[in-house]
Inverse folding.
């Protein structure tokens, strides 16, 4: 992980706003990524986890809320980014070993950062959660990167179909060893059994200990989300096809994916925690339609303003702000300060009780704290943006 300046950014995918429409560059992708990571910060940092507006919570199990769109949108963006970052170099087969090494290196760094987030500040290796958000991003990036370098789009379509159908069969047909028939319940499904068997309960999500929403088996359909982005990115790069046709077909295919996801929901329910095949198609279709709309607005029509600048500031340092915000939030939750009554409370609670709770209703106070968090990090990223400081992974 290192910093780069404006000159280096021009070749690595992090451009100032004024230059974002250069050939081979998608301003819309930076905007999409920026809004996605800002939304991730919003839902991850409420003032009070007991008071959250319903759209800012995950679905309890089956179903899909706006919050459930955020992570798969990011994985979809990962796929699109691979197509743009490696698309030209992939044509030279002599560079394939170099590209594969580059993919492996970045995946290893992302996975390492995820483990570091899980370990700090106590570094309790005996109970560290092995998998997580950054780890899943790393695995999806690794598989999609290798697939992109070594296969064509037709093979990628077949791999996508195989991943989604195969996952459906595994989850709904294969019996759970020692647990009876196949099922889709949180702690007793095949994926939960695999996580407990391979990783052990001490290395799973701390809020469950029996299953992990970023588990091993669920990574298979998550790769499918990345493949959808990979295919969308390759389609948008086809300069031989008129731009209006590219956008129209992306909308059409995205709508078809949403419909197929809703149909599949009838027997394999839309579920983010399981990352079901219906969820992949439904959310992937919404992501494709969003990208198509932003591509038309930002890259074709040239619409720009405060909203796109806000998103780009977040988008060029997306992984950086996700990592740092997670570390800071954890430290604020552990740092104890006097509460004025002879005891102590966490710095997070002290700030929340002092500056938000007295002035707003519980729900609005919690939301306001999350919004302030997003704005504070925007200020940090704006300074980095103005100084052309871009931390690449």
């Amino acid at each position: 992980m290192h910093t780069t300046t404006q000159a280096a950014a021009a070749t690595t995918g992090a451009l100032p706003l004024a230059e974002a429409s250069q050939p081979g560059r998608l301003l819309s992708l930076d905007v999409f990524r920026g809004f996605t990571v800002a939304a991730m910060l919003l839902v991850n940092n409420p003032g009070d986890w007991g008071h959250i507006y319903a759209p800012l919570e995950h679905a309890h199990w089956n179903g899909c809320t706006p919050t459930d769109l955020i992570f798969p949108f990011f994985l979809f963006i990962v796929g699109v980014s691979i197509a743009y970052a490696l698309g030209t170099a992939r044509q030279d087969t002599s560079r394939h070993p170099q590209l594969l090494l580059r993919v492996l290196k970045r995946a290893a760094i992302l996975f390492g950062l995820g483990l570091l987030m899980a370990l700090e500040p106590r570094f309790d290796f005996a109970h560290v959660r092995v998998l997580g958000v950054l780890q899943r991003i790393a695995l999806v990036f690794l598989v999609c990167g290798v697939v992109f370098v070594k296969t064509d789009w037709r093979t990628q379509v077949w791999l996508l179909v195989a991943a989604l159908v195969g996952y459906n069969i595994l989850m709904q047909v294969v019996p759970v060893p020692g647990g009876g028939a196949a099922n889709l319940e949180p702690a007793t499904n095949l994926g939960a059994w695999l996580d407990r068997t391979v990783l052990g309960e001490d290395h799973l999500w701390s809020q469950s200990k029996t299953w992990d929403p970023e588990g091993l088996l669920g990574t298979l359909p998550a790769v499918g989300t990345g493949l959808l982005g990979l295919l969308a990115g390759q389609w948008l790069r086809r300069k031989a096809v008129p731009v209006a046709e590219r956008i129209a077909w992306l909308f059409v295919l995205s709508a078809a994916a949403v419909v197929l996801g809703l149909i599949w929901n009838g027997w394999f329910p839309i579920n983010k925690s399981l990352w079901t095949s219906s969820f992949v198609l439904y959310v992937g279709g919404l992501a494709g339609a969003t990208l198509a709309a932003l591509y038309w607005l930002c890259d074709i029509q040239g619409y720009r303003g405060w909203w796109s600048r806000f998103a780009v500031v977040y988008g060029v340092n997306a992984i950086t702000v996700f990592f740092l915000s997670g570390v800071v939030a954890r430290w604020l939750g552990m740092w104890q300060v006097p509460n004025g009554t002879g005891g102590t409370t966490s710095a997070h609670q002290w700030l929340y009780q002092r500056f938000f709770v007295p002035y707003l209703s519980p729900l609005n106070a919690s939301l306001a704290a999350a919004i302030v968090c997003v704005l504070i990090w925007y200020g940090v990223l704006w300074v980095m943006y103005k100084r052309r400081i871009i931390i690449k992974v």
